[in-house]
Design goal:
Pathway (chain B): Protein modification; protein glycosylation
Structural class of chain A: mainly alpha
Number of helices of chain A: 20
Distance between the termini of chain A: 21 Å
Strand content of chain A: under 5%
Distance between the termini of chain B: 31 Å
Low-confidence stretches of chain B: 350-354, 384-412, 473-483
Subcellular location (chain B): Endoplasmic reticulum membrane
Shape of chain B: globular
Largest sheet of chain B: none
Helix content of chain B: 55-70%
Shape of chain A: globular
Strand content of chain B: under 5%
Number of helices of chain B: 21
Helix content of chain A: 55-70%
Order of helices and strands of chain A: HHHHHHHHHHHHHHHHHHHH
Largest sheet of chain A: none
Structural class of chain B: mainly alpha
Oligomer: heterodimer
Mean pLDDT of chain B: 77
Protein name (chain B): Alpha-1,3-glucosyltransferase
Radius of gyration of chain B: 23 Å
Order of helices and strands of chain B: HHHHHHHHHHHHHHHHHHHHH
GO cellular component, one term (chain B): endoplasmic reticulum membrane
Mean pLDDT of chain A: 84
Low-confidence stretches of chain A: 1-8, 218-224, 229-236, 291-299, 496-503
Membrane topology (chain B): Multi-pass membrane protein
Radius of gyration of chain A: 23 Å
Chain lengths: ~500, ~475
Amino acid sequence: TVMAAPVTNDQSWFFALALGVSFLKCLLINAYHSTDFEVHRNWLALTHSLPAAQWYYEATSEWTLDYPPLFAWFEYGLSHIARFFDKEMLVVQNLNYASPATILFQRLSVIVADVVFFYAVKECCKCLREDKGKYLLGKPSFILTVLLLWNFGLIIVDHIHFQYNGFLFGVLLLSIARHFQNRHFEGALLFSILLNLKHIYLYIAPAYGIYLLRCFCFTQSNIYASPESRINKLSIDLPQVLSRLFPFKRGLCHAYWAPNIWALYNIADKAFSILGVKFKLLDINKLPKASMTGGLVQEFQHSVLPSVSPLATLVCTVLSILPALFRIWHRPNGARGFLRCLVICALGSFMFGWHVHEKAILMAILPLSLLAVESREDARIFLILSITGHYSLFPLLFTTQELPIKILLLLLFTIFSLTSLKTLFRSGGALLNPLEATYLLGLIPLELICEFVYPLTVWQKTFPFLPLMLTSIYCALGVTYAFIRLYISLLTCSDSTKKIKTQ
Amino acid sequence: MENWSLFSLCVLLGLTSRWAVSFHSYSGAGKPPMFGDYEAQRHWQEVTYNLPVHEWYFNTTNNDLNYWGLDYPPLTAYHSLVCAYVAKLLNPEWVELHASRGYESHSHKLFMRATVLFTDILIYIPAVLLYCFYFCDGFSKQKVATALCILLYPGLILIDYGHFQYNSVSLGLALWGILGLGLGWDLFGSLAFTLALNYKQMELYHSLPFFCYLLGKCIKQGLIGRGFFQLAKISLTVLVTFALCWMPFLSDPKQPLQVLHRLFPFGRGLFEDKVANTWCSLNVLIKIKTLLSRETQLFLSFALTLLFILPSSLKLLSKPNLWQFKLALVNSSLAFFLFSFQVHEKSILLAAFMLPLLVKDGLLLPYVVTSLAFLFLSLYLLSALERSTEEELRLGIYRKLTRHWLPKLNLSRIIKWKFWFSLVAMAALSFTSVWLEPPAKFPDLFPVLVSILSFLHFLGFIIYFNLVQLMEPQRKKSQKKTN
């Protein structure tokens, strides 16, 4: 094999990194947690107390079950362990119950579930093409391990905000690793399991579909179909489940705008309406009330530009990922091409989707890490996407107590990724061109203004959502740029790799 | 990867763990009427802001010395004053005279924690970085590993960011003092150490080595001529610094006496609470606290401290080099801890053996996590390094001033076995202290066991380090021969 280091050395640094990040996660047990904590406690309670047929009908709490059935079964399993920590958390009526034992249990469950993620990262490291480095800190597998295990977004969203993304991304990365290792049946099976755990991964289903169909045509597609149906038998009343899973009643944008195209669209609309009123082209009374920047999640109308419906976003999303799918169909580039297409699908859905959460950027950043340690161009895109994407997660943690933590952790991840990738691709000049570097440096004054200067000004009372708007727009620029560059690299790189293949 | 990035990653990790520990409870949280050290620090801000200087250390109607009276030297008081000014800007209620007693709120906790972080970043962390950069032998990776281990040392983190104190200021200043002496800037070193002394009188534990090292150095340069000039300059620096710090208290002869009276409470007994030193442990067998009179106790502790400190100080006086200096620091502080009067367990800054205190503060989780992390980290990083450098003496550089118990990575099996045995004992005691109920006849059983176990370790260390220091020239010669 290609591994240069002996096996004992290999395992010990991985173990050290995994243990280190787990210690950090344990220290964060007492940090702020969002309403997602109550969401999951509610799900523990209702899966424990009610029969399966009623899970998707239960509505005592406002946080109804809106993940697919397999995740509900996962919560059911957890609830049996929860009994030993605090029985009261399993009572559905105990809304917002958060005793110290409850917090400890829920936090520990996320930390322990991350073991799946650790295993997946280990498997991904085995898939790297070459893993030679002068010393440990320069080895691609070491860099990849840190980029994934110590990923800022994952730590912040999972262990402070509270979610189970680590475990889910573990399944995704494992599925990708299996495809790299040519164990396609397992890869497909894992992806089906993943879809039944969290339906947001539908974003990247097209990539899977096209890749598997193209490479393994019709004989194997039957095998691909059957695990799907087997797992779907676990689900219950389909229309009810679907109505909970896809709540289109919610608005185009989340309360805080994810840094995607629609954020730019919204701001353009707002700018036009202000200009229109100024130049007396529009009547101010005929405009709908400016509720976009309000904290409520609701449907609204745009004032100048045409309103956007869910169907329109679906069409835009499909159009944005179609070229990539065609490319993979005509010129499949093996597992790496598939991975690139996957990232583009994730990013395209992020850019054009309906009611996108800013956390969805992680779906693009994490798989991109695999490509980043192998190719210079991908490393560039990864740096821009990850730093911008991670910064856009800042508004998730708005408490003063967590402010130093998020800044310190982001600096930690950024400094590591910048210096390690720079060292890895030392030959060939600077990794980021001056424009990109300036853009990224611009995040520092943005942060200072939004979180330190702005709250002390008069406008904090009248326009409280201005900093959020600024953040999402600034980040939207970076994300769009990364998307375009990624597309360019997909559409141009296939030729060069084909040449390597034929040689 | 470049050095600066590795060092900055260490600092960021250190800062993150510090702030994460600060999320947890502090000493005396929600425990009226006295609360704890956190309330003491807040109270000092209140006192120094609202009262004139000459009332700070006196018992007046406005200043009740029984409720956390000031018992640190003036520099702490000035520091509290500066913090109080900032507090007043943010929320005057925090330092309202009398009315703010027992004030507890989330924003106030953030403010107090932020003051600790600020001084840490300003004083302690740069000192650690410079120390590792200049005074650690070995490749840059080893320096970074050492820096990481020092920055993640649980004792300091838990006491400063959990229990709540400002030890990083005095330790940081003392470390600057050591840096100064190491770089040959004697005046700067003396200045820094004098400031450290004026911040916490605990630094007296280190004063004798500083004194002996500087004196020895001057003597070596010849008492007639250069040496004498050097001595004069150092003495002048020290005296001027003292004068500047104590200036507001020098107007009236009663003032400095009262301050000294507060700093050195000989009115209290030989020890309070459960401390891992000789007197507390001895008390289990012979009730010396009640048997001997206070004067005898004072004399006994003074005599024993002097006895244990003399050999190492004299050795340093005769051979004033940096290596001897560091060993003397360890020996001196251990001697003072074990034998002096009125020692508090915090003086040892040792995570594992402050267990009862930390459990009382509700800091069990951070204690477990940071201790485990630190142990694992030291073992992992240092054992990797130990393969390349064989000397067990190397560990001495690492120990210098933090005077804590580190796993001995000696090649001899006995030491290794002893280490694992100690770890198991520590873990067992931690477990039993938290989860089991002590028998009714001995309600203090577990804290006492912890103290005795620690005491035995410290006794072992002081003997070991004294031996290393006193026998050092022969060993170094043999090293040179084999190299």
